[in-house]
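[audit] Reproducing an earlier prediction to check determinism. Same input, same settings, fresh worker. If the C-alpha cells differ from the archived copy the diff job will pick it up downstream; this log only records the rerun itself.
[audit] input (253 residues):
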Amino acid sequence: MYAEERQQAILRIARDQGRVEVAGLADELNVTSETIRRDLTTLERAGVLRRVHGGAIPVERIGFEPALAARDAVLVEEKERIAKLALAEVPEEGALILDAGTTTIKLAHLLPTDRELTVVVNSPVIATMLGTRTNLNVLLLGGRVRGKTLATVDDWSLRPLADLYVDVAFLGTNGISVERGLTTPDPAEAAVKRAMIRAARRTVLLADHTKLGNDYLARFGELTDLDLFITDTRADNDLVGDIEGAGVRVARA
C-alpha cells in the first residue's frame, strides 16, 4: 500500500469510528507506529485530522476549522492545478463570483488580463489582489470579516447578492458528500455561499480531495446545485463515483 492510499484509509477509519489510535492503526495496516505518526502529521497539515494524545480526531467531529494561513500552506500544487482547470469556465466577458478560500485565491491569480470582467468577491484579500487590475471591475461585498477565513458575512453581504445575477460562481467548500451535500462549519458563511449559488447562472465548485466525504455543521447547497465540480487526481475513486452517480459532472486536475 502506498503512503497516499494508507492515509486515505486512516482518514476513512477516523471518520467511521470518530477517532484513531496510533497502536491500533499500526496493527491494522501492518506498519510501524512511527509510520502512522508521520501519516497523522501529513493529514493534520492537510487540515482533515486534529492530533490528540495517542492518535487523532477528524476535524468535523470537534468543529475545528483551520485558519486561512494554515490552509493556504497545504496542498498547494493540487489547488493550483484545480485553479488552472477552472480557468476554462471563466466567461469571455460578463461577471463572476469568487468565493473566499485558498483555491479561489489561486484562481484569482490566474484571471486573464485581456478580458473585461466584473468580479464579485467576499474576500478583502482577493479584492486587494485584483483591485489594481485595469481590466477588472471588482465589487467587494461588505459585512463582518470572519477571522478564520477573512470572508465577509452577514446582512451587508447578503443584501447585494440578492440583487445580482452573474454568469458563474466559483465556490469553495469544507465538505462535499452525497448524504449531506455541500457543508461548511460556520452558518454565516453558509448563508453567503447559498446566496452566491442563487445569484449565478452556473455554479462551479473548487475543492481538493480532502473535502470529499466530509460533513460539517451548516449545509449551503445540494449536489444538484452544481454545474461542475473540479477536484484533483488524488480524490477517492469511490467517492467521486458516488458524486457522479448523483448527477454531478466531475473534472480532475
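[audit] rerun output stored. Observation attached for the diff report: Residues 76 and 103 are 9 Å apart (CA to CA).
[audit] end
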